[in-house]
Write a structure and sequence with these properties.
single chain; alpha/beta; Rossmann fold; 5-stranded parallel sheet; 15 strands; Chromosome segregation protein SMC; coiled coil
Length: about 650
């Protein structure tokens, strides 16, 4: 496996006032680093220090300190993390390796209380854990944006194709106009030649001829103006009809659009706010419970020596060893002094209380998952309502714009109608004038001049038509030229849409495939006897989302055992041994580590609390994990560490 972060000569870590550590400096080498020691030797505290400098906030500050600090020299850079006590909480600052350690917390820091690791034993939502780091809401928003952009481009491509289909007809009409213009010019030249010949032969009144020519020029101008007005009037009426039709469509759409209840919207807003508050409360409660559980587990391991010493001092004399021995004995009858109330309690009672806290934490995590699902459903419905409100507002605004446009165009139609009538009256008057002039002098020359004027008028019309055709062809060709650019852009959008739509599905499939592949190999390596197969099935199930039922993916964990007679049968997680459950949880963490490529940002994989697994299997498991992480730090008891490869670095003093 290739990682983006080079594993150079190693990493030097300096820690002060983290967990049970007062001051220490430890060097780690690339590969496996084994933290060897008995309980209460600050191995877990050192793992927390690595988590802190990597970016996690799951580390604890030393009980009697106001500030703790971790520094790590890695690949020529120095990373720092400072923990500062603020009232009842702890603030984290500094320059960690990773800005957001959520994925590393889930899949790289596999300590005992790791959520992904525990999800197997507690039958948690495996799919939710794998997909938690993925911002599905942002993906869906981007999909909506791209779909709208694609539809717009499709319309433009369709327009470009329609433009391409129109060009041949226009080109044909252009050729026809050129031919007609050429013929009209030839006719005009012939007519002008006739006029010149007639002028040479006929001695006519120059004054009468000029008057007729002026009248004909005026008549041509007025006719041209009348045609222009008529054309504008026709266009305006066509536009008015289109606007009225659009207004009817908009009004019909607005009427069909489901109205939005303000009371429902306000209720959903309150629900979103309430669910967000509840989720924050649950996050805070879970964090507090995890810290409480972790502290008590560390107390049981004897890591907080200053508290044990204080208890010993309260008992009087130099009895610290006796108290520590009692706390660490592990026997159900062993008794010690409670480090919270000072009363004497049995180890069994402490363990029972811890189990209760763990169960409460599990319930809170389940409730958080339920609240998260409900929040997503409420937000989805609220988004739908907002979309309808925005759509209604857009339609109402468009309806108002169309109404104003109709009023403007109706006024234009009325004005152009009056102008056309005035121009028609002027043309009629000029035609009468020309007729009177022609009636007064039926000269062949005057007829020729009138015919020449008519030819010139027709030629001007043809040239105007040609100019319009050529302008339209140029516009259509420019639109056609954009088709390749639009097509390329659409393909890019389609590729991104396909990638976004399959990203969630791909991550789910990769997580399942990765888990199943590694689980099969690990089971074969560890040889768990009658456990022949453990695998995750990626299935779909119907859930209610608002008022709709939608399909959602679920991960179902299957355990296949082999009976004494060789018959395979499916069993449940509850019937697995603690060792088997721990191994499955660790492999699930590894699958998430690889699918989300945690190694690209965070170089550490941390393992702790492996005592439920026998030493030979721990060694095989560490060897297997070694292949996938730049740095592995594993906390082991001395007897378990003996089974690991001698080439692995041992850290015996922290």
């Amino acid at each position: 496996m290739q990682t983006s972060r080079e594993t150079g000569t190693g990493v030097d870590v300096r820690v002060s006032n983290i967990g049970g550590i007062e001051e220490t400096a430890v060097s780690l080498t690339p590969g496996v680093n084994v933290l060897v020691g008995r309980n209460a030797t600050n191995r877990t505290s050192f793992l927390q220090s690595l988590m802190a400098v990597a970016g996690s906030e799951r580390a604890t500050l030393k009980g009697d300190s106001e500030e703790g600090r971790v520094e790590a020299d890695l690949d020529g850079e120095t990373f720092t993390r400072v923990l500062t006590r603020r009232g009842d909480g702890v603030d984290f600052s500094g320059d960690p390796i990773v800005d957001d350690a959520e994925v590393a917390d889930l899949f790289a820091f596999l300590l005992e209380d790791n959520e992904a690791r525990r999800a197997v034993a507690t039958q948690g939502d495996l799919r939710e854990l794998v997909m938690r780091p993925v911002d599905t809401e942002a993906i869906n928003d981007r999909i909506d944006e791209l779909v709208a952009e694609r539809d717009r481009i499709d319309d433009e491509i369709e327009n470009a194709e329609a433009a391409g289909r129109r060009i041949p007809d226009l080109e044909e009409r252009r050729v026809e106009l050129l031919d007609e213009i050429e013929a009209k010019r030839e006719a005009l030249e012939e007519k002008q030649a006739e006029i010149d010949d007639a002028d040479a032969d006929v001695d006519e009144s120059r004054e009468e001829r000029d008057e007729l020519e002026d009248a004909l020029d005026d008549l041509n101008d007025r006719r041209a103006e009348l045609d222009r007005i008529a054309s504008r009037l026709e266009n305006e009426r066509s536009s008015l009809s289109s606007v009225r039709s659009e207004r009817e469509d908009v009004a019909a759409t607005l009427e069909e659009l489901e109205s939005v209840s303000e009371e429902r919207a306000d209720y959903l807003d309150e629900q979103v706010s309430s669910l967000r508050d509840r989720k924050r409360e649950l996050d805070s409660t879970i964090t507090q419970l995890q810290s409480l559980i972790q502290f008590n587990e560390e107390m049981l391991e004897g890591e907080h020596t200053e508290v044990l010493q204080l208890l010993a001092d309260d008992e009087g004399g130099d009895g610290s060893n006796a108290v520590t021995d009692a706390l660490l004995a592990g026997a159900e009858s062993a008794a010690g002094r409670c480090w919270t109330c000072g009363s004497e309690v049995s180890m069994e009672e402490i363990e029972e209380t811890l189990d209760t806290l763990r169960e409460l934490a599990r319930e809170k995590r389940q409730e958080r998952s339920s609240v998260t699902t409900e929040l997503e459903e409420v937000q989805s419905e609220r988004n739908e309502i907002e979309t309808r409100v925005e759509r209604r507002e857009d339609l109402e605004a468009r309806l108002e714009e169309l109404g104003e446009e109709i009023e403007t165009r109706e006024a234009n139609v009325e004005r152009l109608t009056e102008s056309r009538e005035e121009a028609a009256d002027a043309v009629e008057d000029l035609e009468e004038t020309v007729e009177e002039l022609e009636a007064g002098r039926h000269s062949a020359v005057l007829d020729l001049h009138r015919e020449a004027n008519e030819l010139q008028f027709e030629l001007n019309d043809l040239q105007d038509d040609l100019e319009d055709i050529e302008s339209e062809i140029a516009s259509l060709e420019a639109e056609v030229d954009r088709k390749s650019e639009l097509t390329e852009k659409r393909e890019s959008i389609a590729d991104e849409l396909a990638e976004l739509r399959t990203r969630i599905e791909r991550l789910e499939a990769e997580a399942v495939e990765s888990f199943n592949e590694h689980m099969e190999t690990v089971l074969d390596v560890l040889d768990y006897g009658n456990v022949s197969r453990v695998w995750i099935e990626r299935a779909t199930e119907q859930v209610r989302e608002g008022r709709r039922k939608v399909e959602r993916t679920a991960f179902r964990l299957h355990v296949i055992r082999t009976g004494a007679d060789g018959t395979a049968y499916e069993d449940t997680v509850e019937h697995l041994s603690e060792s088997e459950r721990e191994v499955i949880g660790l492999v699930f963490g590894l699958a998430g580590y690889l699918v989300h490529e945690v190694y690209e940002e965070c170089p550490f994989m941390l393992l702790d609390s492996l005592e439920a697994i026998d030493s030979s299997r721990i060694a095989a498991l560490v060897d297997y994990f070694h292949e996938y992480a730049p740095y592995i730090a594993v906390a082991l008891l001395p007897e378990d560490a003996q089974a690991l490869d001698d080439d692995y670095r041992r850290v015996t003093e922290i």
